[in-house]
């Protein structure tokens, strides 16, 4: 199947444009014809270079297009420093929310950028994850519970009656990256993993979240004094950070049905920590969710 | 007064050799003849370059020296990657602790490196701060209470009967540096300060330490949604981190006489936060304390 085959011509384009990645699906109804990707994320583009970047990546998929082709974009391309700002929609609301049109020079494109979500009290924002949530809800319309999206900035969203009622963002992933790569703890880290060290650290941190900054330095001391292994140190660092987060996010997950969007190592760590707390939790692949959310947005138009 | 004047010849040398600095005092008894300094810290030296670095910085101050001149060194020069490892002394003990001799090529030097302190449960280490504590105790021999040494790795030490009984290290300063300069929060930070924002954040974090990672991201959200000023964001970041630390260090400071070794902005922030908690606290200049601790070590030999 190629773009030259008229039967394979897209009738709309789905775009996930994050800080460090760009993924594009030429679509025919609810079916992707292919997936194109690039490392030209929003972080390295100025507002006037988005359109040319997209047209270049689409290439032949625009051949023969005569009327403006709907292009739905989610992610950081809608941030203030992105292609064009798509102001946040305030919760409670049902994602995906109607987007903001962007004028293009190329007459073959009709671009719309989906907004992120915001919350006033406590102040919080998301941009991109709301589309994943919308994708999950498209497949599980009756869901009532909590969705956890592990990542650099892990999101916890309370969902009821198709709406995101409230959400909270924890910088746990970014803290892990900074501490394991840039702090004094980098000298203690290495390959490997230790499930027991992870589990113990989750428990320690949930019991005494206030001593986090001391328990962190304790990793370095344990390396120097006790020869703590690099893999155990890494697992313990992850466990301390996730444990403090679970203590802080308890109002979100306690007694709730929890879905973790993700299947990678980080999602597995959250799952293991929650299961150890007796929580009802399942992991769902996140890769399809962004596309499903873009399809849900297309279906709404 | 110059080194060429025989009356000004040092009879020993005091050295503070940290990761990123080197300070050297040619001494006559308890009196420094001058202070020499360099940025050639332990972090940029290999074991075989320490001696030449010291001799070069001393220069003419070694002229006319015939017998081996005692040189007392404290700080990271005694770490495993330093000049020579001076193994930690376990608490409880009275700093400064007897040092470890280092052989030199230069026949005019008799170098001794002072050890740091270690603690088994919870695992913890210090290297350099024990000399500052020893210096403070030289001037305040009857002190019974808690010494707080704010820094990249803030130390809380419980002191009684001239001994360090226990101590705990919090990575608060390093977290502040990483978050304010390298995380997504750097886009929210800037010049200025806001005492009220600092105080509120200390209170918030002491009340709910477990939501630290969410309150941190909340700074970014407040910038985007509410136009939080860069100075208030910086003060609030500092307040959140110090507040969580004070909640975790409560067993150290509650009901104790507290001395903060330091007078800079960070020491002032700790003082303000502790005073708001009704604690008895005073700040003492830290600059002299390292030299006083080295003099105390010299007096013990």
Automatic annotation (TrEMBL), chains A, B:
Gene Ontology molecular function terms on file: 2-dehydro-3-deoxygalactonokinase activity
GO BP: D-galactonate catabolic process
Superkingdom, natural source: Bacteria
Name of a matching Pfam family: DGOK
Matching InterPro entries: DGOK (IPR007729), DGOK_C (IPR042257), DGOK_N (IPR042258)
Name of protein: 2-dehydro-3-deoxygalactonokinase
Organism encoding this protein: Sagittula salina
């Amino acid at each position: 199947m190629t773009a030259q085959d008229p039967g394979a011509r897209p009738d709309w384009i789905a775009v996930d444009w994050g800080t460090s990645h760009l993924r594009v699906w030429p679509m025919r109804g609810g079916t992707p014809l292919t997936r194109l990707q690039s490392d030209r994320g929003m972080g390295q583009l100025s507002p006037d270079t988005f359109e040319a970047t997209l047209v270049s990546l689409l290439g032949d998929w625009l051949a023969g297009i005569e009327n403006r082709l709907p292009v739905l974009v989610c992610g950081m391309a809608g941030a203030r420093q992105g292609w064009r700002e798509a102001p946040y929609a305030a919760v409670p609301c049902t994602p995906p929310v109607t987007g903001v049109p962007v004028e293009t020079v190329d007459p073959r494109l009709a671009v719309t950028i989906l907004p992120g979500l915001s919350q006033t009290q406590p102040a919080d924002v998301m941009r991109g994850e709301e589309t994943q949530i919308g994708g999950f809800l498209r497949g599980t319309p009756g869901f009532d519970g909590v969705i956890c999206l592990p990542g650099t900035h892990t999101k916890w969203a309370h969902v009821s009656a198709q709406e995101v009622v409230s959400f909270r963002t924890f910088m746990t992933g970014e803290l892990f990256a900074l501490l394991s790569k840039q702090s004094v703890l980098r000298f203690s880290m290495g390959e490997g993993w230790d499930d027991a060290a992870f589990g113990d650290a989750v428990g320690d941190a949930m019991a005494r979240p206030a001593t986090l900054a001391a328990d962190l330095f304790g990793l370095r001391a344990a390396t120097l004094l006790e020869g703590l292994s690099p893999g155990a140190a890494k697992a313990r660092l992850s466990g301390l950070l996730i444990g403090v987060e679970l203590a802080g996010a308890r109002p979100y997950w306690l007694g709730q049905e929890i879905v973790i969007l993700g299947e990678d190592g980080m999602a597995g760590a959250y799952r293991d920590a929650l299961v150890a707390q007796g929580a009802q939790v399942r992991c769902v692949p996140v890769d399809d969710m962004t596309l499903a959310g873009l399809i849900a947005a297309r279906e709404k138009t």
